[in-house]
Design brief:
Low-confidence stretches: none
Largest sheet: 5 strands, antiparallel
Distance between the termini: 87 Å
Strand order of the largest sheet: 4-3-2-1-5
Radius of gyration: 29 Å
Strand content: 25-35%
Mean pLDDT: 81
Shape: flat
Length: 190
C-alpha cells in the first residue's frame, strides 16, 4: 500500500520523471519507467534496478537532471609542496579546454584547495553536457593530464607508507627438549 501511494505521489509531483539521472544510495542511473508500485532505473552496466516507490519518498534522492542537465567532472590531484603551482594550473586547464566533451560555459576551473600532509591539493572542475558523460570525460582528462605532467617533469605525490619492523619471534620449544639450556633434565644432576 505504501509503494502504491508513493507511486501516486511520484506521478503527481514528478520530483523524478522518466529520463532523469538519479542517485539513490549507491545506485546511479537513468529512470526508465515509473509504475504504480516500483520504478525501474537502468544502471551504467545496462542492468535494471527495480526500486520500490516508497524509497523515493522516504530516502534522500539526488536528481542530477531535474534543474540542470549538465554533468560535473571533478579531479583532485595531490602534488609535492615544491611543485610549480602555476604550471600545473596552466597544464590542467589547457587539457580541460582541449577536450571536446568539456563545455565552454561554465568554464573549467582549477583551485589550489589547500595543503594537506605537506602536499598541494589541486582540484579541477569541468562541466559536460550530461551527467552520463562525466565518467568517460574524467577518464579521458586523467590520461591526458597524467601524460602532460610526466612530459613537464611534474611528479604527482607518492603515497607514504610506514613500515614497522616485526619483532623476532621466540623459537618454539621442541617436544621432549628442555626450553632453556640452563634448566636441568629430570633425573640428571644439574
Amino acid at each position: 500500500m505504501q509503494n502504491f501511494i508513493s507511486g501516486l505521489i511520484l506521478l503527481a509531483e514528478q520530483p523524478v520523471k522518466v529520463g532523469d539521472w538519479v542517485v539513490l544510495g549507491t545506485a546511479e542511473g537513468d529512470v526508465r519507467r515509473i509504475n504504480v508500485r516500483a520504478t525501474e532505473i537502468q544502471l551504467g552496466d545496462r542492468s535494471t534496478l527495480i526500486v520500490p516507490n516508497s524509497e523515493f519518498i522516504t530516502k534522500t534522492v539526488r536528481n542530477m537532471t531535474l534543474a540542470n542537465a549538465e554533468g560535473r567532472v571533478l579531479i583532485r590531484l595531490p602534488m609535492p609542496l615544491t611543485t610549480d603551482a602555476q604550471r600545473v594550473r596552466d597544464l590542467i586547464l589547457a587539457a580541460c579546454k582541449a577536450h571536446e566533451g568539456v563545455l565552454e560555459t561554465p568554464a573549467p576551473s582549477l583551485t589550489l584547495e589547500g595543503i594537506e600532509n605537506g602536499l598541494l591539493i589541486f582540484q579541477a572542475i569541468a562541466y559536460v553536457a550530461s551527467p552520463r558523460l562525466a565518467g568517460g570525460v574524467r577518464s579521458d582528462l586523467l590520461f591526458v593530464i597524467l601524460d602532460e605532467l610526466k612530459k613537464a617533469s611534474l611528479p604527482l605525490a607518492v603515497p607514504t607508507m610506514v613500515m614497522a619492523a616485526a619483532a623476532t619471534p621466540e623459537p618454539l620449544p621442541t617436544p621432549g627438549v628442555p626450553s632453556s639450556p640452563a634448566s636441568p633434565i629430570p633425573g640428571m644432576p644439574g
